[in-house]
Structures are given as C-alpha cells and as structure tokens.
Amino acid sequence: MPQVSRFFGIVIKMYYNDHQPPHFHAEYNEFIAEIGIDTFEVLQGELPRRVMGLVLEWAAIHREELRETGTVLVFMSQSNPLPHWSRPMHRVTAIHVVSGFVVEILFSDGLRKVIDLEPYLGTGVAAPLLDEGYFREVRIESGGGIAWPNGFDFCPNYLYEHVPAREIML
User: Fold this and answer.
1) Does the global pTM surpass 0.85?
2) CB within 8 A of 119, min separation 6: which ones?
3) Span 36-47, mean pLDDT?
4) Which of 41, 32, 40, 38 is nearest to 12 (CA)?
C-alpha cells in the first residue's frame, strides 16, 4: 500500500482497488483507522485522541490531494484492473531558502521553481514555520518531499504541480 505521508510517527496510506467510500488509512503504533476523505468520519478502527487530532489537521490541509488521489484510485479499480496508468512521482533534489519564506527548489527532472510558501503556513502544525529561523531548517525527505523537524511536510508532486512559481526580480 502506498504511503501518502509520514509525520510524528503517524503513517498515512491509501490502497489501490480499495472499497468505497474513498478513504485513507492512518496508522500509529498498534492503532489503525480508516477515515473518509469527504467527511473525515472514522469508518473503522481507532486512534488515540491526540493522534486523531493531528491526522484530521493534516487531512484538512491535504483534502484536495486526498480527493484527487482517491478519485484516481477508484478510477483505476473500476476501469483498469492492471494499473498501466501512472503519474510521475517528482522528487526535490535541492532546496535553498532565498529569503523569508521563499524557497528555490530543484526537481529531479531539472525543473527549477522559486515559490513563496508563506500562504501555506501559520496554523496548527505549520504555525512554528512562521519563525524564519525555524523555517530555514527545511530538509529534503527520503521520499523526495520537503519537511521540517516538527513533521510538517510538502508532497513533491503538490509543489511541482500546484504551487505557483514566483517571478524573481534580477
């Protein structure tokens, strides 16, 4: 089962060819829960209260990505039992904080983007990132995304496909 994200010891996964309604699986130690993407209702299982709060906060931030992934997985299971279709997984290979909350990112295919991440920061787990010193602690994850020590992360495909590049004045 593909891992969608990992933070604070919590692993988020989604299955290909899984049952309806669209949902994701959250695992933490011996606890496992299935959570609906549209309602965030626990469909099955349980998580400790604190962990559930973190998972729901993460899910709210990533709701559109979860819906997109869930739709793709349902489409694949209904129309193509052998998944020949695939989306490229982009990887961040270099990151540099330009100034404030603006970063320059180099992707594995050579695309270079300068993006302002400030609009994505400020609440919940992302609140500490509004401290510029802490923001500079950004690192590349083994999966090719970017993350900070508190577990807040960005999917490389989201950065590649959805976060607009910023014009640079030379």
Assistant:
1) no
2) none
3) 89
4) 32
Q: For residue 14, is it left (φ>0), alpha (ψ between -120 and 50) or beta?
A: beta
Alpha-carbon span 164 to 24, nearest angstrom:
27
> What average pLDDT does range 102-119 have in this prediction?
93
Tokens of 69: 């992934």
Closest CA to 31 of 16, 58, 15, 11: 11
Q: Does domain 92-161 have CATH number 3.90.1150.10?
A: no
Which of the two residues, 125 and 32, has the higher pLDDT score? 32
pLDDT (average), residues 118-128: 84
> Of 61, 83, 69, nearest to 25 (Cα)?
69
Which amino acid, one-letter code, is at 24? Answer: F
Sequence spans of domains, the chain: 3-79, 92-161
